[in-house]
Fold this sequence. Notes:
Elements: E1 5-14, E2 19-25, E3 36-43, E4 46-53, E5 63-68, H1 76-79, E6 87-90, E7 108-114, H2 119-125, H3 129-133, E8 136-143, H4 152-161, E9 166-172, H5 185-191, H6 193-198, E10 207-212, H7 215-229, E11 242-244
Parallel strand pairs: 7-8, 7-10, 8-9, 10-11
Antiparallel strand pairs: 1-2, 1-6, 2-5, 3-4, 3-6
GO biological process, one term: cellular response to oxidative stress
InterPro entries: FAD-bd_FR_type, FNR_bac, FNR_nucleotide-bd, FNR_type-1, OxRdtase_FAD/NAD-bd, Riboflavin_synthase-like_b-brl
GO molecular function: ferredoxin-NADP+ reductase activity; nucleotide binding
Amino acid sequence: MADWLTATVVENKQWNDRLHSLRLDIDYPEFKPGQFTRLALEIDGEIVSRPFSLVNSPDTRPLDFYFIEVLDGRLSTRLAKLKAGDEIFVAPKAAGLLTLDQLAEGKHLYLLSTGTGIGPFLSILNTTEVWQQFEKVILVHAVRHQNELTYQDNINAITTAHQDQFIYVPFVSREEMPDALSGRIPQAVEDGRFEQRTGLKINAEDSQVMLCGNPDMVLETMDVLINTHGLKKHSRRDPGQISIEKYW
């Protein structure tokens, strides 16, 4: 297993019937907040791996991976059964461009996520750099049911520590929840409900937007931001305002 590091499970926290946070003890190389790596298990004599974002910040341990157990998923169903003391393989290098050092200048950073896509954004929010780089940071977490709004202790701590800079906007689409927006992210951005909630205007001069989660949300929200707010996709060669991660 020269291409893999071996980690020990510290905790397998189950948030609800399908959502888990797998915490691992490992001497892991340096990574950037917002990056992902691969987790793997040997299944029927074969190493099966998938990419997962690092939820913890680079200076904290254990490593934290947030995942959903997929029905009949070859790897996720086995990850869900891991217990403290079990071993798992971790790729020795993190990757991905959903990082602060890739962004162009801006005043407001929007972190728009669905489901487990909140993971890399929590890693970013638990650093000092993001609060030095932006005047306002807006975290959006869109889910179907309110029991999927996880990591609330962490989010509450961020709110307390950065109350003048941080705005948290939950979306719940399939039940009513006080203080949560209903529906989906792209529609709320398009019809103005999102800007009304934050009190900020999304524009090319002030805004940087990161998108992570359901691929349909990512593509639809990017389309709305381009067509109704004048933003464009960011790249090193052609700086813009919209950054996305594709590892599905």
